[in-house]
Amino acid sequence: MPVADNLRVQIASRLMHLLSLRDDLFLLAHDDAGKLVVPEAHLGAGLAGATLIDLLLAGRVAVAQGRLDVLDATSTGDDETDATIQAIRANTAPCGPRAWVSWISHGAYERVTELLVNAGVVRRATARRLGVLSVSRCLPENPEDLVRVRSRVRYAIHGRDLPDQLTAALCGLVRVLRLEASLLLSMPTSELLLALERVTAANEVTVRQVTNAVETVITTATFR
User: Can you tell me the distance from the alpha carbon of 82 to that of 104, in angstroms, rounded to the nearest whole number?
Assistant: First the structure.
């Protein structure tokens, strides 16, 4: 494919892919060099939780009597999100947020990476560690995306008003994944974590349930 045509395809794909909470979390979990700054399994749990929160806030699923139910099974156009909807819809057991976060988290990092690469949001790169070992990196195609995500969380922390629901949810996930260093803020860690916790007060009860489920899955994996 000619370079110009390939560029047009990439731009069209990028415009069609509006970044979700899941995508914002993915970007924030990598530093400016594209290095993953938390264990892959932990981010997998975070991405699973973010996918569920995206669906909750969009009115596509709901938590009722401790279980997740599908309200709208219409395709979203995102493979990971659609697969999650169909899995919840097909399940007959009374499973709540914790079980779904645990199940979805397996392999979530690689699946989401592939989706974002195909959508033109990030690109894979290879670097050398100690000049010998080959390590994988994940860089945003548009560096401004990461700047925007950081700015949203920083504004939420320093602002007087509570943020929108997606930003509040992002702050909750940043706190449980311990991504506060990625914000590049000159605040003591304890103060920053308290500020993130304050912001999460804007979250709905069901969103807090999912965030707590992510924290539980991460804690369980850490001490397993």
Answer: 12
Q: What is d(CA 205, CA 143) in angstroms, rounded to the nearest whole number? A: 33
Whole-number Å distance between alpha carbons of 61 and 209:
14
- Side-chain half-sphere exposure of 46, counting CA atoms within 13 A: 27
pTM here?
0.89
* Backbone CA torsion sign across 50, 51, 57, 62: negative
What is the sign of the dihedral through the CA atoms of 94, 76, 56 and 14?
positive
Q: Which domain holds residue 101?
A: 3-222
- Torsion angle of C-alpha atoms 161, 167, 168, 171, degrees rounded to 10: -120
CATH of the domain at 83: 1.10.3630.10
* C-alpha span between 167 and 52 (Å, rounded): 15
Q: What is the pLDDT of residues 27-41, one digit of tens each?
A: 999 999 999 999 999
Residue 2 pLDDT grade (very low, low, confident, very high; cuts 50, 70, 90): low
Closest CA to 68 of 80, 84, 83: 84
The Cβ-side half-sphere exposure at 97, using a 13 Å CA radius, reads 28
DSSP H helix total and E strand total for the chain:
10, 4
48, 91, 164 from 22: Cα distances, Å: 8, 23, 16
**Is residue 67 packed enough to be buried (19+ CB in 10 Å), middle (13-18) or exposed (0-12)?**
middle
When divided into structural domains, the chain yields a total of 1
